[in-house]
Amino acid sequence: MLRSSLLAVVLVTAAPLSQAQSTLKIAILGPMAFVQGENHWAGAEMARDEINRGGGISVGGKRLPVELVRIDTNEIQSVPDATNAIERAITRDKADFLVGGFRSEAVLAMQEIAMDNKKIFLGAGAAHSKLGINVETNYDRYKYWFRVTPVKDADLVRQSFAALGEVAAQIRKQLGKDSPKVAILAEKAVWVEGIVAAAQKNLPAMKMEVLGLWQPSAVATDVTAELAAIDRAGADIVFTLLSGPVGIVVGRQMGERGMKAIAFGINVEAQKDAFWQATASKGNYVSTLETIAEVEITPKTVPFVRAFKARFKKSPTYNAGTYDAIMLLKEAIEKAETTDADKLVPVLEKTVFTGITGVIEFDKRHDPLWGPGKVPGLAVQWQDGEKVPFWPPQVKGTRPFKMPAPK
Amino acid sequence: MLQDILVTGLVNGGVYALLAIGFSLVFGVARIVNIAHTAFYMLAAYCFYTLLVTAKLNVVLAALIAIAAVTALAALCYRLVIEPVRSHESAVLIATIALGLIFQELMLVAFGGNFLGIPSAIDGVVSFLGVSIPYQRLLILVVAAAVLAATWVVLYRTRLGLAIRATANDLEVANLMGMDVNRVAMVAVALSVALAAIAGVVVAPVFVVDPLMWLAPLVTMLAIVVLGGLGSLKGSLLGALIIGYVEAITVFALPQGAFLKGAVALSIMVVVLLVRPEGLFGVAFEEER
Amino acid sequence: MKNPLAFAARWAWVNLKNEVLVLPSRTLVAAWVLAVLLLPYAWPDPYVLRIVTLTCLFAIFAASWDLLAGYAGQVSFGHALFFGAGAYTSALASLKLGLSPWITVWLGAALAALAGLVVGFLCLRLRGAYLSLATLAFPLIATGVLFAFPGFSGGELGISGLRPVASTRVGNYYVAAIALLAAAFGLWKLADSKFGLVLHAIRDDEVAARASGINTPRYKLVVFTISAAVAGLAGALFAHYLRVAGPSALEVALSFQVVIWGVFGGVATIYGPVAAVFILYPLTEWLGSFKAVGELRLLAFAVIVLAVLLFMPRGITPWVRDKIEAKCQRCKQRNGAWRAQCRLCGAPLKELRAVRAG
Prior knowledge:
The complex is a heterotrimer. Helices cover 72% and strands 3% of the residues of chain B. Chain B is an all-alpha fold. Chain B has a domain at 17-211. In chain B, helix 2 packs parallel to helix 4 and helix 5 (135-157) crosses helix 6 (159-169). Chain B is globular, with a radius of gyration of 19 Å. Among the domains of chain C are: 43-251, no CATH class; 328-358, no CATH class. Chain C is globular. By secondary structure, chain C is mainly α. In chain C, helix 2 packs antiparallel against helix 8 (169-191), helix 5 (101-122) runs antiparallel to helix 11 (216-242) and helix 13 packs antiparallel against helix 14. Chains in contact: A-B, A-C, B-C. Chains B and C meet through helix 4, helix 9 and helix 11 of B and helix 6, helix 12 and helix 14 of C.
């Protein structure tokens, strides 16, 4: 009698306590019907399983397993859908932390809601600087936002010139000319503005002649007119700044025309495994900046990529950086010994975390620092159906850049 | 540069013409603004992709099966969805929009949001006037010309064509004369979607295939048929060439404004409508009730 | 007046009893108004509040489309132009000029009205499908222009960091809800007036209307302007609610969406599209929140629309109205369907209904 009533008392008092926090809920926000959301989720699952296998996250003496909440924002098709989704994640699903995002216009709107609710939001997809600038201009409101991947658009400029500089010598030798001709093919978008201006200034300084600037729409399905003009101008290099499906069209139509120019720059579609098939095997020699590949950016990169490929049967894209986001969050929580957002922010700001994309450190805009020894980025080139990393040469696993045979 | 514009404009115009004729036909005969027209084009592309790449069938066989399958589907959709609401014009409109969305989402579920590439039927380029034209694009031009000729023959040299033209001209009188107007409308729909399917099979290899691929051609095609005059095949052809050339000129004259080629084409359409409210060759439907 | 409050209460009661409660459709509307006003107290869930706030804003948009397309017969396929114009104007004014959103939303509506005037003018001579497809072009041209001036418009990102109109969640909800009630009632009264009658005439037979001496171009310009202004107001409120005004406010999908809402709800009613939005938008959101359906929400939406349309081709509200109300054959006034006699003229309702059904 005494034992059962004691048990009852224990259960009654334990029940609300156990409901207080039995798991750590992390909402993964992304367009789940598309490849970006799939990668968000896959990277997160890898992190969750690794953490839970190790017993969970230790917070003030307790060990909490990680529970993922899959939130389809549908941001590619609708910005209000994304805001509804994040509101649901916060108020209905009671997520403790938010990770993900892809389309910058939607992430800007989602950021507002996350900040309203003072929830930590780790970005794993949108590159636009405005997200970081908000942190600088209104720190108290936006401090809960941290961008884990990719590096912000301004750093992509530096990355592309660094890579181009390395390759330039090879290009000059193969072409036998001192001053290769460059055509800039940039989609019409805000993120290219800074890079285009920088290219127009820097390329002549790197002894390359800028022939002109062509700006198709990011969703253009046909660039024959642009390519015909570029061909006629006699370009040797097509410096590409493309993030939309136009990247596939460029790769394919350049290959079909047998253009002598080589495509180099940023081509987000070319980062995906499906690029080769999408260009009907014509996208040879197309090169682009990348974030993750099966090379040793850090000791964690290669094992992660191999495990990812084994589990999901495809290579990770940069959106799988949700893995890094969750792992560095775990480290911060364990260091701060709390899940309270206000206490976590200063700890996150001092993070120096070795992830799969590099060593992640945040600047005062909560953007990841770019550079060798930090998040260096990579450049890859499609060579006969294989995506070959070729830059930075000091990273183990990179192979040489190939030029098409001279005609 | 002039030859670039001439050739590019012609080739792109041919692509657009193939899409526009079918739409014009179904509007002229059945008075249906078929928003799902390019969605059928998309379905044909996906079907062709599956048969060609996944099932590895012969290219001609895959094309024929894809065209037949999509046409049959269209006839089915017409019977199940459009016919019951034929008398309510706005309901028909929404029905076609809903169909388009359904096809889009089904493709999204079946194939994912990835972009797919269909290999060209004929690889390689040919040089004409110093401009490189891939063989696939020449194929499109040839097919567009053949299809236009065939459509003209059917419309003007067969009894079926006569029935279609009569129904297009005056529905009530055609009915009174004993023609089964419903059957004629169904045939017109089938013919129109067959044309869209042919376009899907032949054109899709030069573009990318994804579930949203039907929206951009939809707008361009609507601009073309409006510009040329709804219901006029001649108008659609001319409109396609005009839009093709306008886009080529925009890109060549203003490389930094290449993204504006769609907006410029639409502006041309608006200007033409200001001057001729029924399009270039359109017939004003004054007595429609 | 002895006691103004008692007088007002009695007036309200008399009207309620004699005008509203006699007809089931009006009772439904009254119940809906009450529900909209009391929602934050009945169900204070922030997620639900967000959905219903967006529903109210889209309902304003749909009602404005109905005035133009349903009543005046100018079926616009590019109504998102006005929505986007209102959104961008209000965003730019509040950010660049530092004005309060309470002022800038009206600026947004004003610029949208101007856009409506221009579009209406350009489309004066167009009929039927030509008008619809021409209107489709305008938002696309506008998007192209916005992309051409990214420093000004923010390009593909739009303008972000806007201030909300009210400072609390509930405050924002009431802004949207009151705006909806005012707009819907205003438009409905307008459509019910002589102006609306003229619009009907223009839709049914413009030539005959012209022959009767009606200055149809002027009426068309006026209806374009009014419809655009209301749509612009909705767009401006939407931008401030989302805190972002981007090219998604101009997209083709939004224009198509409002056409679907309009026809699904029943054109030329004003309350029809509003009902459609209130049914479809929360329904699709709710369906989308189920893990199984989640990514298929648009498919579910399209299938529902298609299925319903097959059974109710004129839209939902006319069908529902026909089921719960009957029209008296003698005095043409509507009555509750269960009644035996017309409430106004006393003519029998039942046998005539039997004739109709037979």
